[in-house]
């Protein structure tokens, strides 16, 4: 707890706006190390003071998450790195989010996935596993009704709604699979993103629908060579992150989010140049 508990509370409620602002800036300058004490102070506060402290905590957490994202986005090399940075992205756009709850859900689903995968008795069951688990049991599929929403690119929102865009839905498959020890990889087709399991292609946007290679090539016949290369390649975490940021930037460019637009554009540049 701050030693000057009562003094800080008094300064934040001072009648002089300059005094209040100076106190805020000093608390913000302390960064993340002040969050625990601010939250402790907020529990014994109410009304205007509690609101001020909540806003300070939010600003500190968003700034800290943004700085961490900037520092690490160009150096991710594993699914674990990618997941960590997706949680940071969520903290920037969803301040105050309880990430532990969502991480716990992924852990629970991985345990269930591991349990179910041990009961395969035929190749047909194995091939239909992802569709049954993610598409039917968990209910994940594409958000066709509100495709161009920021929420479709944020992991907690996708987990809550069970709706998203191809890349964000694929992340659920990849992160749960990693936890369960089941190798699921991304497939970066021209204009679409799929996942691969046991050599079989699945479309998370269509509830995990099984796709044949021939069907993919037929639908993308104008880019056949590019599609053939994508089907056999393993997509790097950095490429997946670039897709996520590109989707976000496209949405932000059509909305009034100037502060976020510049930030995401910078992150995308860092990822592409690394």
* Spatial gap, N to C terminus: 41 Å
Radius of gyration: 22 Å
What is the domain total for the residues? 2
Largest sheet: 4 strands, antiparallel
**In DSSP terms, counting alpha (H) and pi (I) runs of 4 or more, how many helices?**
14
Mean pLDDT: 87
Runs in which pLDDT lies below 50 for 5 or more consecutive residues are none
Beta content = 5-15%
Order of helices and strands: HHHHHHHHEHEHEEEEHHHH
Structural overview:
- The structure is a single chain.
- The protein has 274 residues and is of the alpha+beta class.
- It has 2 domains: 5-72, no CATH class; 79-273.
- 64% of the residues lie in helices and 8% in strands.
- The protein has 14 helices and 6 strands.
- Strands 3-4-5-6 form a 4-stranded antiparallel beta sheet, sandwiched between helices. It has a two-stranded parallel ribbon with strand order 1-2.
- A hairpin with a 5-residue loop joins strand 5 and strand 6 (209-211).
- The mean pLDDT is 87.
Summarize this structure as a short list of keywords or feature phrases.
single chain, 274 residues, alpha+beta, 4-stranded antiparallel β-sheet, two-stranded parallel ribbon, 14 helices, 6 strands, 8% strand
Would you summarize the structure shown here?
With 274 residues, the protein is an alpha+beta fold.
């Amino acid at each position: 707890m701050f030693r000057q508990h009562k003094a800080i509370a008094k300064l934040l409620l001072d009648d002089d706006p300059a005094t209040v602002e100076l106190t805020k800036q000093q608390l913000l300058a302390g960064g993340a190390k002040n969050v625990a004490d601010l939250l402790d102070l907020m529990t014994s506060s109410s009304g205007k003071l509690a609101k001020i402290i909540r806003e300070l905590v939010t600003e500190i957490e968003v700034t800290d998450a943004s700085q961490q994202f900037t520092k690490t986005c160009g150096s991710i090399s594993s699914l674990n790195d990618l997941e960590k940075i997706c949680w940071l992205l969520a903290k920037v756009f969803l301040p105050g989010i309880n990430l532990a709850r969502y991480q716990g859900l992924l852990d629970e689903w991985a345990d269930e996935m591991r349990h179910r995968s041990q009961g395969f008795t035929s190749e047909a069951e194995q091939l239909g596993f992802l569709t049954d688990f993610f598409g039917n049991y968990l209910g994940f599929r594409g958000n066709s009704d509100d495709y161009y929403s920021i929420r479709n690119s944020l992991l907690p929102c996708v987990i809550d709604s069970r709706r998203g865009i191809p890349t964000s839905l694929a992340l659920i498959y990849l992160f749960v699979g990693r936890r369960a020890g089941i190798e699921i990889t991304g497939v970066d087709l021209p204009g679409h993103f799929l996942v691969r399991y046991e050599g079989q292609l699945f479309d998370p946007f269509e509830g995990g629908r099984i796709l044949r290679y021939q069907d993919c090539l037929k639908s993308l016949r104008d880019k056949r060579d590019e599609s053939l290369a994508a089907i056999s390649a393993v997509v790097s975490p950095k490429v997946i992150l670039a897709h996520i940021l590109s989707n976000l930037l496209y949405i932000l460019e059509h909305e009034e989010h100037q502060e976020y637009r510049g930030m995401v554009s910078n992150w995308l540049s860092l990822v592409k140049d690394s």
